[in-house]
Each structure stands twice: as structure tokens, then as C-alpha cells.
Design a protein that fits this description.
By secondary structure, this protein is α/β, with parallel strands linked by helices. The protein has helices at 12-20, 26-33, 37-47, 66-86, 102-115, 138-146, 168-187, 190-193, 212-215, 227-231, 243-253, 273-281, 287-302; strands spanning 3-8, 51-55, 91-95, 120-124, 126-127, 130-131, 150-154, 198-201, 235-237, 258-259. Helix 5 links the parallel strand 3 and strand 4 (120-124). The longest helix has 21 residues, at 66-86.
């Protein structure tokens, strides 16, 4: 069963509701309108994808105002679940939670996983400028750990020094958000304390496979676990579209930890979707590794 674990969906009613709460989703309107959801099924058929997992991605319902955050999260989750139900298995969804409001986030996670039967929870790589491993968020991690839940990380276009040119926060900066969030979760000790949370890092791990040797520098700093050990327990999607990069990630992280992702519809044209799927098969990897990445790993993790 071929599952695309990394995709987004921002229909007009979601964009409108988020706008009422103060979130500008102009770009989201543009990318979603290029391929409405009813057309997406045909497109998935054409590239051999059986199920696509939807998530809010960069548009997390993170508001300092608790009421706004709760309203946004609940609206998005119920809209996504309606979509999942309507299309009878062609879509699944990762729920979102109203951070930084931890008690409300714990309640919403329970609603997503128990009532809506979602595949997991999507968390931003940071929460309104705060790191995911900060002590205030531990009750949420504890609950997700108790449930042995899947957590799909996603950058939030945080920006930073020298990322002031148009497009750089998302196009370039977000790969470092992936990297920094994952590494911090390990070296802070959070993933050692909550080992049953199953974390997916998007975009082929950002830069993780390519700085692997430098991560070993932390091994002798009294952390109890090296970043390399911790990061090998995470999962990663294939959003990169570069065969050499995929081969590197497979060698470093292990083929059983990598699964198909496309980041649909964030690409120049919907016609490019096939490339994000086909490059895995054309990467030169062993056929059994290709089969695991495309057809087995996500199914074993998500149990859809």
C-alpha cells in the first residue's frame, strides 16, 4: 500500500476561518486552488499513491489567544476528518493542537486520536518562537508517549538572521527548522524520557544526513545518548527529490526509517508530483529498499 505521509490541504472554508481568526493564508489559497481535492484523487491514481496523509503543516493553529487557538484547531481537525470520511480511504490526516496552551492541546490530541481516529498529531518545529522541548510542553509529550502516538513535525517558516529575502524563510530556512527541532528533541533528553512517541521528520531530515559526522561531536558531552543514536529512532519522509540525497539518507539513517512524502501541493506545478514519487524508484537503491520506502514503512508505522 503506497502512502504519501506529507501533504497539505487548505480549502476556501479553512482559509476563510483562519482569516477570521487573524491568520493570512493567501499563499495557501493559491496552491490549493491549483488542484481541488476532488481532482487530487485522479492525480494520486496517476502516480500510484493509494492514500495521502493531510496535515496543516506551516499553518499550525498557534495563537497566543487560547480561544482563537482552540477554535482554529477544532475547525481544521473536523474539516480534515470530514474529507477523510468523504473519500473513503484515499486520505488520512494528522490532527493539529492549539499550542502554546498545553491543557487544551492535550484535550484536542485526545479528540483527534480517540474521536476522529486520526493517524497522529502534526506539530510545528517550534511554537510561537518556543522550542518543542521546553518544560511547559512536557504534559503534551507525556500524553503522546502514553498513547504511543505518531508525531509528524513540520517547519513554521520561523525565519531568522539573513533570511530576509523573499521566500527564504520557507524555501531555505525551513530545512534548518527540521534539523534544529529534531536535534534539540534528542540532545535535550526529551525523546529519551518519552521513547514511545514515534516522530517523523520531514524533508529527508532537513540537513541531518549531511552533517552526520559533526553530530558525533556531542557524543561525549554527558547527554547519555548521542544525537546519532536518538535520530536513528526517528522516521523521515522522502521530500527532497534528489536521488543522491536519498541514497545518503538511506545509508546514514537506515532504509526502514524512510517513507514516501511529496509535500503536495507545494511544487511548481501539480504535474511535478510524479517526480517526487518516481525519483525513489529511480534512485539506484536496491529494489527491496525501494519497496520498503514506497510501500511498507509508512503502512507499518501508521497502520492505516
Amino acid at each position: 500500500m503506497r502512502i504519501d505521509v506529507h501533504a497539505h490541504y487548505y480549502p476556501p472554508e479553512l482559509v476563510r476561518r483562519m482569516g477570521e481568526l487573524g491568520r493570512d493564508m493567501t499563499r495557501a489559497v493559491q496552491v490549493t486552488c491549483e488542484c481541488p481535492i476532488h481532482q487530487r484523487v485522479d492525480l494520486l491514481n496517476s502516480v500510484g499513491v493509494d492514500t495521502q496523509v493531510l496535515s496543516m503543516g506551516v499553518q499550525q493553529p498557534y495563537f497566543e489567544d487560547r480561544n482563537k487557538a482552540c477554535l482554529a484547531a477544532r475547525f481544521a481537525n473536523e474539516l480534515y476528518q470530514d474529507t477523510v470520511a468523504h473519500f473513503g480511504g484515499r486520505f488520512a490526516a494528522f490532527g493539529c493542537v492549539p499550542l502554546p496552551h498545553v491543557s487544551a492541546a492535550v484535550e484536542e490530541a485526545a479528540y483527534c486520536l480517540d474521536d476522529l481516529r486520526m493517524a497522529g498529531i502534526n506539530l510545528g518545529c517550534s511554537v510561537v518562537g518556543r522550542a518543542l522541548e521546553e518544560p511547559e510542553f512536557e504534559p503534551l509529550w507525556a500524553e503522546l508517549n502514553r498513547r504511543r502516538a505518531v508525531v509528524f513535525l513540520h517547519p513554521v517558516a520561523l525565519g531568522g538572521p539573513l533570511l530576509d529575502l523573499p521566500g527564504l524563510p520557507m524555501w531555505l530556512g525551513s530545512r534548518f527548522e527540521d534539523t534544529i527541532a529534531a536535534v534539540r528533541l534528542v540532545i535535550s533528553g526529551l525523546t529519551a524520557r518519552f521513547p514511545d512517541v514515534k516522530i517523523i521528520v520531514p524533508h529527508l531530515g532537513g540537513t541531518i544526513p549531511f552533517i552526520w559526522g559533526r553530530l558525533a561531536d556531542y557524543s561525549n558531552r554527558g547527554l547519555g545518548e548521542s544525537p546519532q543514536q536518538g535520530l536513528k529512532r526517528f522516521y523521515y519522509d522522502t521530500v527532497n527529490n534528489t536521488p543522491a540525497a536519498l541514497r545518503c539518507a538511506v545509508e546514514v539513517l537506515g532504509p526502514e526509517r524512510i517513507m514516501l512524502g511529496t509535500d503536495f501541493p507545494y511544487m511548481k506545478a501539480t504535474s511535478e508530483l510524479a517526480g517526487y514519487v518516481n525519483y525513489v524508484a529511480e534512485s539506484g537503491l536496491d529494489p527491496d529498499v525501494v519497496s520498503a520506502i514506497l510501500d511498507r514503512n509508512a503502512l507499518e508505522l501508521l497502520k492505516l
